[in-house]
Amino acid sequence: MPAVSLWIQYQKAANLAERTIKARAELMRTLEQWTEKPALEVTQLDLVRFMARDVSPATRSTYATIFRVFYKFATDQGFIEKSPMDGAPVPKRPKYAPRPVENVQLHRVLATASRRTTRAMILLAALAGLRVHEIAKIRGDDFDLDRATVTVVGKGNKRSVIPLHPVLIELAREMPDIGYWFTHWERPDEPINAKSCGQAINRAMQRAGVDATAHQLRHWYGTALLENGADLRTVQELMRHESLATTQIYTRVTSERRRDAIHALQLPV
Are residues 113 and 229 located together in one domain of the fold? Predict the structure, then answer.
């Protein structure tokens, strides 16, 4: 069995998220096609040239992480003696400040979203902070309206129970109480994929004249929680961040908004 295929099997055995495994496998296939070599014959120079292509800094950092993981596996299994990533440049992952949609933009998107399913996607992102891959797989069975909670399967298949906003409680009463909310148009027993979910939200943004993405609704959620007095630890749990440092980035946004509010003050003439 080729090393990449065996690596994929190990990841499945470790219960890694399906989307993580798929993304890693696709990257390794792309590397092999680009270098025209099997993964185990790729040199450090090949990897450096591949990572130096015209991609974003965040993507370059992701490439390096995945390559380090694969080649560590390859050396641990005895497929190669030394990882070609040893001594290779380690691109730092850039830290981006969240860019939440503005309140007026969110209002406009909701006012113009005519499709019930698209509106539901937007509300799940804005009022529960769900990521697009979490929204895509949401089911009526995930909601417990007696307890006013929803169970979300997030990164790494981690399950979290989130309190429901009153608007989402009403939404859940209108949507199917069993099965997927957002089904594939050809296979109604399957959910849509994350890409389709993100595209549906982004199209709604464009129709509303809002220059933003689906993930910026989640940014709005985190920022709004802090601006309404929630402490960092609570926001971390609600956004399901592994690290508190990730949540702390949102304080930069709220600080800037407070500063802008002060600067907007005008003395009466």
Answer: yes
DSSP for 195-255, written as a single string: HHHHHHHHHHHHHTT----THHHHHHHHHHHHHTT--HHHHHHHHT-S-HHHHHHHHHHHH
Count of domains in the chain? 2
Note whether 84 and 122 are within 8 A (CB): no
pTM for the predicted model, two decimal places: 0.71
Among this protein's residues, is 218 annotated catalytic? Answer: yes
Residue 206 placed within a domain = yes
- Among candidate residues 131, 133, 137, 219, the one labeled active-site is 131
Give the residue numbers spanning the domain of 231: 103-264
Position 92 in a domain: no
Q: Of 77, 93, 121, which closes a domain? A: 77
pLDDT digits (tens, 9 = 90+) for 176-200: 899 999 988 888 788 889 999 999 9
Do residues 108 and 206 lie in contact, with contact meaning Cβ atoms separated by under 8 Å?
no
Q: Which residue among 108, 184, 215, 240 is the active-site one?
A: 215
Q: Catalytic residue, from 68, 108, 155, 207: name it.
A: 155
207 is catalytic: no
Question: Is there a catalytic annotation at residue 158?
Answer: no
Of the candidates 63, 71, 221, 250, the residue annotated as catalytic is: 250
Where residue 189 sits, what CATH number does that domain have?
1.10.443.10
**Amino acid at residue number 100:** P
Check if the beta carbon of residue 84 is closer than 8 Å to that of residue 71: yes
Whether residue 203 lies in the annotated active site = no
The catalytic residue among 63, 218, 219, 221 is: 218
Sole residue written with tokens 């990449």: 4
pLDDT-based confidence at residue 41 (cuts at 50, 70, 90)? very high
pLDDT of residue 127: 93
